[in-house]
């Protein structure tokens, strides 16, 4: 499953060797996770265990340095959004059954129209 940033308008995705890091929503900390969701400004958004935000949405003081590596502080809240972030994000992941159904219907109607 590709790692992409959940922020609206952000097209960052994981690329090996990139300086951009990705952080999963802190679902085990409901209050902090709620702050992350609120910061996105999205209506009806429910993060999954795989939902991530990239490092570009966190201020420099949200990180701590340890042995030359940057780590996200445990209480960090994303606040940097260069793109408009108001709106509604829908779940764009489809199950295997949904994809199979869509393919079947597409093929069925295509064949039906040609005969």
UniProtKB/TrEMBL annotation:
Q: Which UniProt keywords apply?
A: DNA-binding, Metal-binding, Zinc, Zinc-finger
Q: Which InterPro entries does the record cross-reference, listed alphabetically?
A: THAP2, THAP_Znf, THAP_Znf_sf
Domain (THAP-type) ranges: 1-81
Record's signal peptide: none
Under Gene Ontology molecular function, one entry of this record is: zinc ion binding
Give yes or no: UniProt keyword Metal-binding: yes
Give the protein's recorded name.
THAP-type domain-containing protein
Q: What is the lineage of its organism?
A: Eukaryota, Metazoa, Chordata, Craniata, Vertebrata
């Amino acid at each position: 499953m590709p790692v992409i940033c959940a922020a609206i308008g952000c097209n960052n995705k994981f690329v090996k060797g990139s300086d951009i890091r990705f952080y999963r929503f802190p679902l085990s900390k409901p209050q902090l996770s709620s702050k992350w969701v609120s910061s996105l400004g999205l209506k009806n958004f429910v993060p999954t265990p795989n939902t991530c935000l990239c490092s570009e949405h966190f201020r420099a003081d949200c990180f701590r340095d340890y042995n030359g590596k940057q780590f996200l502080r445990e209480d960090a809240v994303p606040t940097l959004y260069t793109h408009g972030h108001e709106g509604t994000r829908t779940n764009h992941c489809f199950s295997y059954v949904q994809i199979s159904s869509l393919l079947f219907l597409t093929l069925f109607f295509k064949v039906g129209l040609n005969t």
